[in-house]
Amino acid sequence: SAAGEQIVAGLDVTNIGSDRGLMQPMLDRLRARTGRLPGRHLVDGGFGRAEDIEWAHDQGVEVYCPPTQSKHGTNPYLARRGDGP
């Protein structure tokens, strides 16, 4: 989509050092406010927890997120055991 079609739909301030685990609560709040979830959701790398991405997929939301950087020299693009669709 064009940049003109994108909006910031929610924000939150926490004292947690990571965004991990916050995607589902953010999308739940968005649904409560608007009555629906977005078809596509662009997030930064901190939101990239596999469980949240799979939950969003089950809700019909396509998540666009950079892969987590590997700390062990492995390829972050390869499928891992337990990965969903």
TrEMBL record:
Residues 66-85 are annotated as: Disordered. This is IS5/IS1182 family transposase.
